[in-house]
Amino acid sequence: MKIFVSFQKQRGFGLVEMLIGAAVLSTSLLGISSFFQKTLEVSSLTQSAVQGDYLLEEGVEVVKLFRDAGYANNIVKLSTTTPTYLAWDGTNWATSTINVFIGGKFERKITVSEVKRNVSEDISDTGILDPNTRLVAVSVAWNVKGATTTKTIQTYITNIFNN
């Protein structure tokens, strides 16, 4: 019994396999590259948002430091008509009317408003001015892809130390 096996040459089959393999590999590498590029972009946006949040929190803490050092000398004297900026001189915090960009990217400003109370001593839009309470808004703004992102936090600061 003889078994005949026929081996026919299949010309060009190896070349087609190499072309298909190269196309699959190129597509895979392009997809992975696009994924990592998008990941880095989102990471950069997240980093800016986290930095902005920290700057907001720091702004509120600085206002509390001013209050603790002397409400009458530091808080009452802040303008209620124009924004105030914070400046760090390496040792102490100070207020400024000149905008200070943090890291060349972030703008932080503080806006102080007077607080009024009604006859029930609740905060209201009308009523008697409360000299021992101020509404403080800290805003941080930065530019993302040609658009400005702004975050704001508000808190009441009171003269708890009667100073």
Number of domains: 1
Question: Tell me, what's the shape?
Answer: rod-shaped
Q: What is the β-strand count?
A: 7
Structural Rg = 32 Å
> SSE order, as H and E?
HHEEEEEEE
Label the structural class: alpha+beta
Largest sheet features = 5 strands, antiparallel
Portion of residues in beta strands equals 25-35%
Keywords: Membrane, Transmembrane, Transmembrane helix
Organism: Candidatus Azambacteria bacterium GW2011_GWA1_44_9
InterPro entries: N_methyl_site
Protein name: Prepilin-type N-terminal cleavage/methylation domain-containing protein
Account of the 3D structure:
InterPro entries: N_methyl_site. It holds the Pfam family N_methyl. This protein starts with 12 loop residues before the first helix and ends in a 5-residue tail after the last strand. The protein has one domain. A hairpin with a 2-residue loop joins strand 6 and strand 7. The longest helix is centred in the N-terminal third of the chain and has 57 residues. Strands 3, 4, 5, 6 and 7 form a 5-stranded antiparallel sheet that branches. A two-stranded antiparallel ribbon has the order 1-2. The model has no long low-confidence stretch (mean pLDDT 91). The chain is of the alpha+beta class. 38% of the residues lie in helices and 33% in strands.
